[in-house]
Amino acid sequence: MSWSFGYGSRRRWNALVYSDGDWWYDPLNNEFGFRLGGRQSREWTDTKWDFPGPDEYAELAARKSPGWFARAGEKALHAAVVTGDPHAIDLAGGRHPQYRNTADVLAGLLSLESRRTYAAELLGRTVVGGFEPREDTFIRTYLPDAGIVVPIAPGVAVALPIMRTAIALTVAELAQENGDFGSAIAMLDLVDRTTHVVLSQVELLCASGRFEEAIALTERVLNDDDVTAMTLVYRAIALRDSGDRSGAIEALSRALEYPNRSESVLAFARIVQASIESSEP
After folding, report:
1. How far is CA 196 from the centre of its chain?
2. CB under 8 Å to 84, separation ≥6 — which residues?
3. C-beta atoms surrounding 132 within 10 Å
4. How far, in Å, CA of 233 to CA of 164, rounded?
5. Residue 55 CA to chain centroid, in angstroms?
6. What is the pLDDT of residues 42-60, one digit of tens each?
7. How many C-beta neighbours within 10 Å does residue 63 have?
8. How high is the pLDDT of residue 47?
9. Rounded Cα–Cα distance for residues 277 and 209 (Å)
10. Residue 95: CB partners within 8 Å, gap ≥ 6?
11. Which of 69, 74, 122, 178 has the most CB within a 10 Å radius?
């Protein structure tokens, strides 16, 4: 599953509508359905996020100027961010190594729509290195309200500030786009298992056929919100595909327990429910 990452409300950016197996999801209209004739090529539609994403980083940074006594590296990086040019930001990080991690995060996020392999490389090494952007002085000073929206499952996206968990989720989605489920799962193993991380992991485990691990990961999940409800749907998929039909039905009943969950989550749950019922002996 892949959409555009974290772009703001002033533009409309393309979002990917992708068939995973025989079903599809349209995030603009919150519609699910079945594809005829099996997997087809990817289709594009428009959606937008009301969030100060990467396309607004330059404007946000320009609202505050470095002081007279700011370090040369801080001034250079700020000037680069204000241009909105990932290459300029990368160069500033190279010339001022104390800002290398900060530059990697910002250049990586600004490259998501143009150079995804490059973005994944920059962002991935900051996660592996343990860098926490949320605690970074430069980001807290010049981009305190900035963030990114990351799609993590059909109908579920998370809006987060620039922080390590958001970066890891983003890198995992980029790896998933390329079919590299192992790298995506390994990336998420490096950060705390928030409910969003668990959902992303269980989707990846199901996609790679590691159903027993998906079942173990979701053993104690409760239906507390849209994210956990969707996690239960993926638990049902893992149970179904591992041969435990009754367990899958039970997990789906928990996912569908509350009618106030988002329609996209409930629709996905019903699609999985229909697939189980259609395979009834």
Report:
1. 9
2. 57, 58, 110
3. 16
4. 26
5. 17
6. 333 333 334 578 989 999 9
7. 10
8. 34
9. 21
10. 73, 76
11. 122
Average per-residue pLDDT in the chain? 83
Percentage, residues of the chain above pLDDT 70: 80
Per residue in 71-100, pLDDT (tens digit) is 999 999 999 999 999 999 999 999 999 999
Residue type at position 266: L
Q: What is the per-residue pLDDT across 216-225, written as a single tens digit (0 to 9) for each?
A: 999 999 999 8
Neighbours of 122 (CB within 10 A): 25
What is d(CA 6, CA 13) in angstroms, rounded to the nearest whole number? 10
- Give the span between the Cα atoms of 176 and 247, in whole angstroms: 27
Mean per-residue pLDDT, 158-172 = 91
Place of tokens 């367990």: 247
Show the tokens assigned to 144.
């305190």
Q: Are 167 and 6 in contact (CB under 8 A)?
A: no
* CB neighbour list of residue 158: distance below 8 Å, 6 or more residues apart: 149, 150, 152, 166, 169, 196, 227
